[in-house]
C-alpha cells in the first residue's frame, strides 16, 4: 500500500532531522595553500624561502573533532612538494597523508593537489609540514583540533590558547644543504638558529625587535601548544619562574603532571597549562638542543620568546625591562629527558592495552656507513665512507617512478617487496661500545612489512651504538600507539616485561627511543594502506632510517582503502 502524501512528508522530515543531527557540529573547512618563494629577513639578511601563502610559519588550521578539511595545495615554487598532516589518523584516506613517493608522487611546480580528510577521535595539537627534501625547514604550521561543540576540555577552560612552534633556521638554502651532504656523503651543515613562531629571539644578531611576544594577564591560565618543527634537534624548553602542567601530547590527553622543563622531539607536540602567578613583568620562554649522540655537531644556540604580563597599571615595562631567564638543562642531560618522558601517562579510561598480540616485532634503529666507490672521495669518516642509517639492517630507498600506495593499490610489480625482516638479520650486542665493523654497512632496499587488518602489533624499537648511539624520535604515519615501556641497554624480553605499563601508558604518534636504549609500542592495524615509519630527525630519514607497513584491507567498504582521488599526482 502506497504511503499517503502526509506520511511521506513526515518521513522526509524525520530523515532530514536525522541528517541534521548527524551533521550537527561537524563542518567542512576549505583552504588554499599556495607554496611559493617569499623574501624573509632573519639574522641580518634577506633570504628567499619557501612558504605557504607567503607566511612563515604557515597558516594555523583550527578545526573541531569530526570536521573535514579540504586543502587545495598549489605549487608555485621551483621544487617538487607534498604536505603531510602530521598525526592525523587518515582513516581510509591514505592518499591524503602526504609523504613523497609513499602515498603520492610529488606535486610538480605549476601543479596542484586537493587533500581531503576527516578528523575522527582526535583532540589537541597536531601540525602540518612539507614532506619533500628539506622543505619542511620553512613549510610548516599548527593544526589545532578542539572538542566538538558543547564538549568541554578535560581540564578547566584556559583564558587563552597560544601555538608555540619551535623551528630551525639555516642562512643557506636548506635544500642546498642536504643536497651537498648527499653529494659528499658527509653530515649536513648544522643550522644557524632555532626559532619560536618563526623568530630567533633576543640572543641572535638583528633579531631583538622581532622576538615573539605572548601577552598575558596576571592570574590567568594559558594553554600553550608546543610543537617541535625543528629538522634535526630534540629540544629542552623552559619558562622563567613558571611551572608547566602537561595536559596533552600528540593530540592525546594525559594525566596532568607539573614540570619545569619539557623535552620535545621533532614531530612531537606538548600541550601545557601555565598559570600567570608571578610578579607582572617579562619572562623568557627558552629552548635549546638536547643532544645524545657522541661527537655529533649540533646547533648550540638558544631561542627565546617573551611572556609579557599586562598588569593594567600605569607603568609600561616595554622592551627596556630585561626578561627573567630560565634555567636550562645541559645539552646532553639524558636524565632530564628520561624523567620528563616517565611523567607522561594517559587517563586510564582513554586507553586499551591488548594482552593477545598477533605480531611481535623487533626493529633495530641506528646509523651506519657505506663504503665509497673506488676512486670516490667521500666526506664520511676516514674519507672513504658515506653516512647511512637503517632499521633491521635495511636502509630504506624511496621509489622514484611510482608511489608505494599507488603501486600497492594497482598491484604494480617491481616497486617494492614485502619481506622487511621482523627481527634483526644478525643478533648482536646492540649497545656495545665496539660493535663489529662488519655490521656497519646495511643493505639498501625498498622493503615493506605486511600486516593483516585488525592485527595487534607489539614492536620493540632498539637503538644501536653503530657510529654513535642516539635518541631517535620514531614516527608512524596513520597511527597512534601506546608506549608500554622504555629503558636503557639491550631489551631483555624476560626481565624488561616487568617494566610494562598496562594501566595508563601514554599514547603518541612519535616516540623518542632512548639513547643506547629501547622502547616498546603497541597498536592495532585498523587503518588500511601503506604507512611510513621513520626517524623524525630529517638527516636520518634522508640516510634511510625508515620502513613502511603495508596494512591490508579488511572486510567490506569500511575496512578498505578508498579509491585514489582523480587529481592524485603522477610520477614522471
* Morphology call: globular
Which oligomeric form is depicted? single chain
Query: With helices defined by DSSP (H or I, 4 residues minimum), what is the helix count?
Result: 5
Spans where pLDDT lies below 50 across 5 or more residues:
1-9, 11-23
Q: Terminal Cα separation, in Å?
A: 60 Å
Class computed from helices, strands and strand pairing? mainly beta
Strand order of the largest sheet: 10-9-12-17-14-15
| Main sheet attributes: strand count, strand direction, barrel closure | 6 strands, mixed
- The helix content is under 10%
Radius of gyration: 24 Å
Average pLDDT? 94
Strand count = 32
Proportion of strand residues? 35-45%
Question: What does this molecule look like?
Answer:
The protein has five helices and 32 strands. The chain has helices spanning 5-23, 174-184, 334-342, 404-409, 538-543; strands at residues 28-42, 45-52, 61-64, 68-75, 83-86, 112-118, 124-130, 140-146, 160-169, 193-196, 213-216, 221-228, 234-239, 244-249, 252-259, 261-264, 269-275, 282-290, 302-309, 359-371, 385-391, 394-396, 443-445, 448-451, 456-463, 472-476, 481-488, 507-508, 510-513, 517-524, 529-535, 546-551. The model is unreliable at 1-9 and 11-23 (pLDDT under 50). The chain has 572 residues and is mostly beta strands.
Compact summary:
By secondary structure, the chain is mainly beta. It has five helices and 32 strands.
List the helices and strands and how they pair.
Elements: H1 5-23, E1 28-42, E2 45-52, E3 61-64, E4 68-75, E5 83-86, E6 112-118, E7 124-130, E8 140-146, E9 160-169, H2 174-184, E10 193-196, E11 213-216, E12 221-228, E13 234-239, E14 244-249, E15 252-259, E16 261-264, E17 269-275, E18 282-290, E19 302-309, H3 334-342, E20 359-371, E21 385-391, E22 394-396, H4 404-409, E23 443-445, E24 448-451, E25 456-463, E26 472-476, E27 481-488, E28 507-508, E29 510-513, E30 517-524, E31 529-535, H5 538-543, E32 546-551
Parallel strand pairs: 1-4, 3-8, 9-12, 11-19, 20-25, 22-23, 24-32
Antiparallel strand pairs: 1-2, 4-6, 5-7, 7-8, 9-10, 12-17, 13-16, 13-18, 14-15, 14-17, 18-19, 20-21, 25-30, 26-29, 26-31, 27-28, 27-30, 31-32
GO molecular function: hydroquinone:oxygen oxidoreductase activity; metal ion binding
Family: Belongs to the multicopper oxidase family.
GO biological process, one term: lignin catabolic process
